[in-house]
Amino acid sequence: MAGVVCAAASVASISNGAASAQTSVETSSQVAFDGSAEALVAWSKQPTAGDDLNDLYAFLHAASPWHQFPLWNLWGEQTPYTPDKERDFAAPRLVKREKDERFDVDRLWIESPAMRRVVQVQVQYPRDRITPAPMLYLLDGVSAPVQSGWLRKGDVQGALAHEHVTAIMPVEAGGTNYTDWNETDPYLGRSMWETVLIDELPGVLESSEAGIPFNGQRYIGGLSMGGSAAVRLANLHPDRFAGAFSVSGCYSSVNTTGRELFNLAARSMGGNPDLMWGRDITPQRIRNDVVANPAGIASMPTYIYSADGQAGPSDVESARTEGIDELFGNIVLEKMVNRCTHELEDSLNAKGLGNGNVTFDYHTGGVHAWSYYKQQLPVAWANVTKGAYTY
């Protein structure tokens, strides 16, 4: 218990320092910023930082009235898809296609019986629009707004410019973990993303009506919340995918750190994670636990990346613009996913499934930020396809 209390005190102290530093930045006090940044960088290099965070979450799960870290709504907005607007559809159906207003991609509107609303996806085509190509379902991070982060920050257009692949980017999935929720969240709305991604979108996008030449091979990948989901969905449905990748994700919905990261994804967008798979270790949580049973991903090429959460000079420079609290959060999140990634690798080896299909890529130095995600997209794609679709 002493270790847990120390961990909680340490995190609270750093968080308070970060808040003070942000105030100082706003008042142009460079001395205060530099001091706080230096303290954060030093903490990020502590070898026990990930364990301390895990101890803190375990304590909160067991002893707090919330049974989770009580994070407030950081980025969420009330869904426009409230229950009073839900509609019944007979079957998934493509109802509209337009050029995107911002990027050189198409935006498709698809009626979803599972979501009881029209779901939007952004579609980036290969240079060769005639020859059938694989489809890559590319999942966004926690905010997952109407414009995919892969287009806004992830350089997907540059990364796949010489790849014969159609990228499918679902949008408006913020905080949902791309899963089927037990109950509709009054703030996030209805979430049945597993059903959409596995059962509804493929039938529509691969149909002749969609007009997208398809070679029969599906891949799935993502970053952070989307990376966790990509590996989880591939593991649950290995017959649907030829390969999967994750950049900075978590893979256990039961183990302390992974469970808390899934909670944080919903909380940070204003949702209630208890409505997702239940508060405790429920059958739904167990079903979605890749660490407990990783046989699905062991059957296909899978690439999993994590940095160690140690902040460097470039991360500090970014914090001068984005805020010292952003740096603190990016360190904490990458410490969490690094622990999650080691748990998955340990499980594969312990179960005799470390057969070479799953590649783990650990980097010394790096935090939870788009500058790292965009670097890993072409690496991840090349790893799971072995260059099979490069022009």
UniProtKB/TrEMBL annotation:
Transmembrane segments: none annotated. Residues 1-21 form the signal peptide. Keywords: Signal, Transferase. The lineage of its organism: Bacteria, Bacillati, Actinomycetota, Actinomycetes, Mycobacteriales. Pfam families: Esterase. SUPFAM superfamilies: alpha/beta-Hydrolases. It comes from the Bacteria. The keyword Glycoprotein does not apply. This is Trehalose corynomycolyl transferase D. GO terms for molecular function: acyltransferase activity, transferring groups other than amino-acyl groups.
